[in-house]
Amino acid sequence: MSPEAIADSSFLIDWSRYSRRDLLTRLFDVVHVPESVLREIQLPPAVDWVAERLADGSFALFTETTDIETKARELMALSRSKPLKAIDYPEAVCLAAGLRFGYTVLSENGGAFFAPRVLNLGVVVWRAFEVLVEAWRRGLVQDITEELRRYEQEALHLFRRRDWEYVWSLVGRR
Q1: In this structure, are residues 99 and 123 in contact, taking their beta carbons and an 8 Å threshold?
Q2: pLDDT at 2 over 90
Q3: Distance between CA 21 and CA 25 in Å, rounded?
Q4: What value, to the nearest 5°, has the Cα angle with vertex 83 and ends 77 and 8?
Q5: Tens digit of pLDDT for each residue in 51-110?
Q6: Above 70 in pLDDT, residue 30?
Q7: CA–CA separation, 48 vs 147, rounded Å?
Q8: Which of 49, 90, 122, 141 would disulfide-bridge 135, Cβ 3.0–4.6 Å?
Q9: Separation CA 103–CA 108 (nearest Å)
Q10: In whole numbers, what is the pLDDT of the chain averaged over residues?
């Protein structure tokens, strides 16, 4: 895992509703926010939280260069030619930057999440689920099942049954 991440709007909007959102800045030295993602974030609490993190330096604005833009458009086209949910430009920028700089990509977008496997990309994509499991592994979260439930309730985001089964196998209970 890279000490740096890059996040799309689906991740940031959900994560901004979570009361323990500081876990993100404890896992990553910096979280990059592409300009195209920033344009999609327009409502509180996400806009306020992202602005605060940009101001304190735990988030950084990611400027989309020509090479990143070109790679993003290539990934978008490639996603449309495979059995994969199409990847939109902001998510493609995150994937392209993850590939180029080794950032962990943070996304709740299904196309972005499955792109590394379907498109054979050498990039790590995490959803909130993987972020929380990593926080638990590092001792930042004591009870992973309780934390996942808290996230579901606060972020209004339900985890897949397969994710829950994975966690239950880790903790040895249901």
Answers
A1: yes
A2: no
A3: 8
A4: 60
A5: 999 999 999 999 999 999 999 999 999 999 988 888 999 999 999 999 999 999 999 999
A6: yes
A7: 23
A8: 141
A9: 16
A10: 95
What local confidence, expressed as pLDDT, does residue 84 receive?
80
Q: Please choose, from the candidates 76, 70, 126, the residue with its C-alpha nearest in 3D space to the C-alpha of residue 100.
A: 70
Query: Which region holds residue 140: left if phi is over 0, alpha if psi is between -120 and 50, else beta?
Result: alpha
Structural tokens at position 36: 């195209």
Q: For the chain, first and last CA: distance in Å?
A: 28
* Structure-token pair, residue 89: 């430009």
User: Which helix (H) or strand (E) is 60 found in, with range?
Assistant: strand 59-62
Q: Is the pTM of this model over 0.90?
A: yes
What is the rounded (10 degree) CA torsion for 115, 137, 34, 150?
100
User: How does DSSP classify residue 157?
Assistant: -
Domains of the chain: 4-128 (3.40.50.1010)
Residue 174 reports pLDDT greater than 70:
no
Handedness of CA 48, 18, 142, 123 (dihedral sign): negative
Tell me, rounded to whole angstroms, the distance of Cα 159 from its chain centroid: 14
